[in-house]
Write a structure and sequence with these properties.
The protein is mainly alpha-helical and about 400 residues long. The chain has helices spanning about 20-30, 45-50, 55-70, 90-95, 100-105, 110-115, 125-130, 130-140, 155-170, 175-185, 190-205, 210-220, 225-240, 280-290, 310-315, 320-330, 335-365, 365-395; strands spanning about 5-10, 35-40, 80, 145-150, 250. The protein folds into three domains: about 5-170 and about 245-255 and about 365-395, 3-Layer(aba) Sandwich (Rossmann fold); about 175-240, no CATH class; about 275-365, Tyrosyl-Transfer RNA Synthetase. Helices cover about 60% and strands about 5% of the residues. About 35% of the residues are buried. Bound molecules: tryptophan and iron/sulfur cluster (SF4). Tryptophan binds near residues 9, 139, 149 and 153.
């Protein structure tokens, strides 16, 4: 039916940190080899919460893209672009706003949560209420099946599915839809028509998911159908109309256990991060001043790694031999804490090495980033325009 695509976005909030690398970007880099992937900077989403503080958006956008490239996101495999530069996102958002029930938006959990969390901001705006709808437009405009996100974003993907279903229900039924679908069934030819009807009944009457799969396979293999009839019959199989917008699935990113400098999860809001491209001096200083097991006051006091945030980082960066050395040395007071921290510093710097190297190329020649984004925006816009063409026509605004 539609090609399998992966889509995800990130708001340009400033320099990314190692938590982003371990939690999100490694996953993005893995996916780019498996699917056509579309990764974008959600700069319009940044405006929904930072409409009064827009100075840094452009700078943060470029820096974030450099962080992506540094992490191994490869522009020859994945399409990288900027949301606001593909205006079809905004157009689809407007079109969807005509039919998205206000109550659906008000009950998305992040709406009230974020308003409370960012109490110092006035988020009683039209744009902020529409945050999930803009996200739905981002996803639906590429007919993306897979959306890699963290757990906090799952309600947004669910919401997107509901919007797609409602859209297809409202606009997927052209005049004379049932008659046209029935005529298309006949075009399948005797044996195949019968098989299609049987599978359709089995799915619609008994909800048998295998019948749905078999029905889709039958249609995919049918030689006698025009593309339009095929689309019709995909929708008819499920009972809805034509599928104009595709329901996506969240591809749940495993919660990153990347610990920060204080043992809590690494997060900008805790101020416990190491930037992806933090310079070596600063990495060294941050790790050296990390808190350790509070019971280890003097060098001669034995410690307990299980009560020490440094140990959490050894679990990420050290091999078995080093970890054994830490456990033995700490519990026997055989090593000092600064000594213990050195392999962590080395581990972080080792990880950053290739990232800094990849980034340097783009820092030296900013035009490379400009070109990557321009290419990406163009490619994205081509696909987005295909969908918009169908959407406009379905909503009565077709011009041809
Ligand atoms: N809301 C997402 C976040 O805060 C960012 C985002 C915007 C997004 N549009 C998207 C993620 C579309 C996935 C798909 O992380
Ligand atoms: Fe933590 Fe290492 Fe010091 Fe033990 S020796 S308290 S694990 S820093």
């Amino acid at each position: 039916m539609f090609a399998e695509r992966v889509l995800s976005g990130m708001r340009p909030t400033g320099a990314l940190h190692l938590g982003h690398y371990h939690g999100v970007l490694k996953n993005w880099a893995r996916l780019q080899a498996e699917y056509p992937c579309f990764y974008f900077v959600a700069d319009l989403h940044a405006l929904t919460t930072h409409y009064d503080d827009v100075q840094a958006i452009g700078h943060n956008t470029r820096e974030m893209v450099i962080d992506w490239l540094a992490s191994g996101i490869d522009p020859s495999q994945a399409t990288l672009f900027v949301q606001s530069r593909v205006p079809q996102h905004a157009e689809l958002h407007l079109m969807l706003s005509m039919m998205a029930p206000l109550s659906w938006l008000e009950r998305v959990p992040t709406y009230k949560d974020q308003q409370e969390k960012l109490a110092e901001k006035d988020l009683t705006t039209y744009g902020f209420l529409g945050y999930p709808l803009l996200q739905a437009a981002d996803i639906l405009i590429y007919r993306a099946q897979h959306v890699p996100v963290g757990e906090d974003q799952v309600p947004h993907v669910e919401f997107t599915r509901e919007v797609a279903r409602r859209f297809n229900h409202l606009y997927g039924k052209e005049p004379g839809y049932a008659e046209k679908a029935e005529a298309a069934v006949k075009k399948l030819g005797g044996k195949q028509s019968r098989a299609y009807r049987e599978l359709r009944d089995r799915y619609q009457e008994q909800g048998d998911p295998e019948a749905l799969v078999a029905g889709r396979e039958l249609l995919a293999a049918a030689q006698s159908l025009s593309a339009q009839d095929r689309e019709r019959l995909f929708g008819y199989l499920e009972g809805g109309g034509k599928i104009i917008l595709v329901e996506p699935q969240a591809l749940l990113t495993e919660a990153s256990r990347m610990p920060g400098l204080d043992g809590q999860k690494m997060s900008k809001s805790y101020g416990n991060t190491i930037a992806l491209r933090e310079d070596a001096k600063s990495v060294e200083k941050k790790v050296r001043t990390m808190p350790t097991d509070p019971a280890r006051v003097r060098r001669t006091d034995p410690g307990n790694p299980d009560k020490c945030p440094v140990w959490e980082l050894h679990r990420v960066y050290s091999d078995d031999a080093t970890r054994t050395w830490v456990r033995n040395g700490c519990t026997s007071a055989g090593i000092g804490c600064l000594e213990c921290k050195q392999p962590v510093i080395d581990g972080v710097l080792r990880e950053q090495g290739p990232m800094l190297e990849r980034a340097q190329k783009y820092i030296d020649d900013p035009k490379l980033v400009t070109d990557i984004l321009e290419d990406g925006c163009q490619k994205a816009a081509r696909l987005a325009e295909e969908t918009m063409h169908d959407v406009r026509a379905a909503m009565g605004l077709g011009h041809d």
